[in-house]
Amino acid sequence: MHLSRFPRVHLAHLPTPLEKLDRLSKELGGPEIWIKRDDCTGLSTGGNKTRKLEFLMAEAQQQGADLVMTQGATQSNHARQTAAFSAKLGMDCHLLLEDRTGYEDSNYNFNGNVLLDHLHGATTETRAGGMDMHAEMEKVAETIRASGKKVFTIPGGGSNPTGALGYVNCALELLSQANNQSLRIDHIVHATGSAGTQAGLIVGLKAMNANIPLLGVGVRAPKEAQENSVFKLAEATAEKLGCPGVVQRGDVVANTDYVGEGYGFPAPSTIEAIKMFSQLESILLDPVYSGKGAAGLIDLIRKGHFSKNDRVVFLHTGGAAALFGYTRAFEDLMSHSSPVA
Ligand SMILES: *Cc1c(COP(=O)(O)O)cnc(C)c1O
Question: What is the pLDDT of residues 119-136, one digit of tens each?
């Protein structure tokens, strides 16, 4: 396993910090909670897609692309990081945004990630929820190619074997950080969606024989479907890396109990997790991914899933820019009140 064999554009701020969350650990009465700050990857408010895009955009450059296309939900963090990466490399960017919630308020549709997409100069088109977005993207890409542009398409979430290399790299980085500090890690927990993050991490952890259980907290699909899509991508990623078969189906574990009503709809536990992290640790989670991942972490701690002496690392995958698209979820905080009862 040698990542330098793959083309890469070094743009992320790495390594991201690994920090201890004292106040949250105390509030929950143990285990010791640590956080890996992939919300601090540096590109246009950061997030996990930047690590994947380091490898994906290098492929786009190698192929001589002058326009990059991708797709995602209206408040997609992946779309925003792709728009930012394209701007930095002097490529055009076109985004297909799927309306998965039906929210009609202007913050959801024009603020948060959507505002940043446009600030980075991307063009956008919207689609109704439930369409085959990948097929739509390839269709639009063909019409742009017909006009003479060299279009490079990136799958939703940047989740293919190339993108997943970014999270193989994250596993290496996290292990070296922990080793250098003699920090024993007992569990890693993170939000899982399009599967690239979990697939890359599990390949890296298994290839290093780290023996650290990894738990993905789902944001959309049911457990079986989520685990299957992570496993499939992990197998292809291991193949690409030259260590085929390193991941077994049983290594891939997802918990999808915290999805709530569905993708893009924050559940009460999501909102509680966002408030706890912001009020105890001054860390901003998001309403679609990291808030659900943290809700899973918090609930599993309360249910005694981890032992008190365990050290659990929560991988913060970013997404706080979406908070400004989800002001509707925080209206109860907006009323003025006095600190004196
Ligand atoms: C995309 C995303 C995830 C999920 O990562 P996948 O690789 O798609 O599974 C988690 N958190 C945030 C903030 C994201 O934008």
Answer: 999 999 999 999 999 999
Give the Å distance between the CA of 317 and the centre of ligand 1. 6
For ligand 1, whether the C-beta of 216 sits within 6 Å is no
Find tokens 């246009």 and name the residue: 44
Confidence of residue 339 (pLDDT cuts 50, 70, 90): confident
- In this prediction, residue 340 carries a pLDDT of 86
Which atom number of ligand 1 is nearest to the Cα of residue 322? 13
**DSSP run (H or E) holding 190:** strand 187-192
Strands ordered across the beta sheet of 214-218: 18-20, 32-37, 311-316, 187-192, 214-218, 253-255
Determine the Cα–Cα distance for residues 303 and 337; give it in Å rounded to an integer. Answer: 34
Residue 214's DSSP bridge partners are 188
Which tokens in the block code for residue 201? Answer: 């991490």
Could you tell me if the CB of 76 is within 6 A of ligand 1?
Answer: no
Choice from 289, 314, 315, 324 to test ligand 1 binding pocket (greatest atom count within 8 A of CB):
289
Q: Where are the strands (E) in 74-144, listed by range?
A: 92-99, 123-128
Residue 41 Cβ inside 6 Å of ligand 1? The answer reads: no
Q: Is the CB of 317 under 6 A from ligand 1?
A: yes
Q: Mind listing the pLDDT tens digit for each residue in 227-273?
A: 999 999 999 999 999 999 999 999 999 999 999 999 999 999 999 99
How far apart are the CA of 62 and the centre of ligand 1, in A? 26
Provide long-range contacts, Cβ within 8 A and 24+ apart, for 158-161.
158/49, 158/52, 158/53, 158/56, 158/70, 158/78, 158/82, 158/194, 158/196, 159/52, 159/194, 159/195, 159/196, 159/199, 159/233, 160/56, 160/196, 160/233, 160/236, 161/233, 161/236, 161/237, 161/239, 161/240
Catalytic: which of 76, 86, 269, 290? Answer: 76
Q: 229 an active-site residue?
A: no
Query: 269-305 pLDDT, tens per residue?
Result: 999 999 999 999 999 999 999 999 999 999 999 999 9
